[in-house]
Amino acid sequence: MSLLELEKLGVRFGGLVAVQDVSLAVEEGQIYGLLGPNGAGKTTLVNMISGLIRPTSGSLRFAGEAGGPWPIADAVSRGIVRTFQQTRAFLGLSVRENLRIAAAASGRAADAAELIEAFGLGPVLDRPAGDLPYATLRHLGIALALTLKPRLLLLDEPAVGLTGGEVDRLARLIRDWNLRGVTVLLIEHNVRFLMSLADRVAVLDRGRLLFEGTAADCQRNPEVIDVYLGRRKEDA
Amino acid sequence: MPRTDLLRVTVAAVALFLVAATLALRLDDYLLYVVTLGAIFATLAVSFDVLLGYTGYLSLAHGALFGVGAYACGILTAHHGWPFWAALPAAGLVAGAAGAVIALLAFRTRGLYFAVLTLGIGLIGHQLFLVLAGLTGGVGGFVGIPSPGRPDWVPLDQNGWNALLALALLLATFLAAQLFVRSRLGAACLAVREDLTLAQALGIRVGQARLAAFVFSAIFTGFAGALFAAISNFVAPESFTVLGAGFQLVALVVVGGMGTLWGPILGAALLTALPEALRVASGYSLMAYGVLLLVFVIFAPRGLASLATAGLARLRTGAGFRAAPAGERRP
C-alpha cells in the first residue's frame, strides 16, 4: 500500500486550469522527485496535498485513509508537513522561539537537541531568524517541519539559491532523515540535485503529468528531454 | 518549557506586589486613588497586550468590553443584590462571552480591517450603554454601585482596601497572562502574529489560538471593569468610549512595550502618573497620550520595556548605550 496516492487531482482558478488529472503514488520510505518547468503546477500540487488550497477535482489517500486532501491542520496531524519555496520561519523571533513554537504546535514533537545539532542551529539559537544567513534559514525552515515528526515531508525547492557545498550538505540531511523513516516529496528545479536523491520521479508540464517512473527512465524519456531536459541533454 | 523561569517571574511579581502594596498604603487618600486607578489600567493593559502584543491584533472594542464588565458588576450588585465577590467573576465571564461574539465577527478580517471592524463594535457598545438606560442609567450614569466588601479583620479603610484589591487583581492578571503566553496556545498566538501561513503549515489551529487570546483579554478586561465600577461606586458611558478607554489601552501598551507583560505595567504607571503630575494640564491628558505615542512609535517602537532592557544591559556590561537590540521588527 502506498503512503500517498493522488487520484486525478486537479484545480482550476477561474478559467485557468492549473493542475489537471494528476495521479501518482509515493511509497513509504521513498524520496519522490517532482520536476517541471516554471509554472508547471508543482507548487500548486504541493499546496493541494498539504491542504493550503482545495482541489476542484480528484482525491487523495494517505496511509490507507481516503477522503483527502484535508485542511492543512488536519493534514499536519496526519503527518503531512511542508516547507515553503521562499523559506518561511518566524523572522522576528529567535531560532529558539521558532523551535519552541513548532514543538508546541505538535503534540509529539521531535527531539529538539538532535535537530539543532544536525542542522547546525546551536550557535545561532538566540539570534532572530531574520538575521540568519540564507543557508541557515533554509535549515531552520526544514528543522521546523521535522519538529512535527512528519511521515511525509513536502520540500518545495529547498536548494534554490544555495551554493554547491550547501546543496551537498542539504542532500545529506534529506537522505539522513529519509533513512530514519521520513518519506520525502521533493520539488526541485535543480535536476542534478533531484536526480541524485530521488528514487522515483514525476514530471509535470503545464499542469499535466508528463512522466512518472524511475530517475534513470526519466533521463532517457524523449518527451521529458524535449520539454524539460533538452537544454541539458549533453550532460545528462 | 522553562519552569524555573516561570517560578522566578512569579516570585519577583509577588515581591513587587508586596512592596507596592506596602508603599501605597502609606500614601494619602488622593495618591492612593491614583495608585488604584493606575493598577486597574495596568490590568487592562496587560490583558490587552496578550491580544495586541502577543497575537498581533489591534482591537478598538476593548473600551466597550471594559464597560461590559463595569455594567455587569453594577447591575448584579446594585439591582440584584449580589455580593461583589460573586459579581466579579460573573462580570469577567459576561465580558468573555461578549468578547467571544466580537471575536467570531472580527476574525473574519485581518490587519487594518480588523481594527476598523472593532472600532465599529466599540462605537456600538458605547451607544448601547447610552441607549439601554433601564439597565445602565444611560447618559446620567449608573449610581449606587456598592464598594467591594471588606472583611472585618482587615485593618484598612475602604480606600486602602480598594487599592489592595486593584494591585492584587493586577498581580493575578499578570501571572495568568504569563501562564497563557508560555502555554501551547500562547506559542500558537506568537506564530499567528509572526506569519499566519507558516502557523497554518505547522498545523496550528489559528482560529482557536486567536479566539483564545481575544477571550482571555476580554475576561480580564471584564474583571478590571467590575473592580473599576465597585471602587468608583458610579460609572457612566463616557468612561468606555473608543477614543477614551479604547485608545488609552493602545497608548499604554505601545508606550510600555508590546509583547512584554511588564512593559504595559510601566506604560500604565507612567501614563497614570503623568496627567496627575501635570495637574495644570488635566484637560489635555489625551493630547499628552497622543504626543507620547508619537514619540515612542518613532524613537522607541518597543516602548519603555526595550529602553529598560537596554539600560539594564548597559549597567551589567558597562557597554555603550544602544536603543533596542538588533532584529526588532514588527508586522
Describe the structure.
- The complex is a heterodimer of chains A (236) and B (331).
- With 236 residues, chain A is α/β, with parallel strands linked by helices.
- Chain A has 2 domains: 1-79 and 150-161 and 184-236, P-loop containing nucleotide triphosphate hydrolases (Rossmann fold, 3-Layer(aba) Sandwich); 81-149, no CATH class.
- Chain A is built from 9 helices and 10 strands.
- In chain A, strand 9 (200-205) and strand 10 form a beta hairpin.
- In chain A, helix 3 packs parallel to helix 5 (134-147).
- Chain A is globular.
- Residues 232-236 of chain A have low confidence and may be disordered.
- Chain B is mainly alpha-helical.
- Chain B has one domain (3-241).
- Chain B is built from 14 helices and 2 strands, in the order H-H-H-H-H-H-E-H-H-H-H-E-H-H-H-H.
- Chain B has helices at 3-24, 29-55, 62-79, 84-106, 111-131, 133-136, 158-182, 184-194, 196-201, 206-232, 242-256, 263-277, 285-299, 303-317, and strands spanning 142-143, 234-235.
- Chain B has a two-stranded antiparallel sheet.
- In chain B, helix 2 runs antiparallel to helix 10 (206-232), helix 2 crosses helix 11 and helix 2 runs antiparallel to helix 12.
- The two termini of chain B are 26 Å apart.
- The interface between A and B is medium-sized, with 31 and 24 residues.
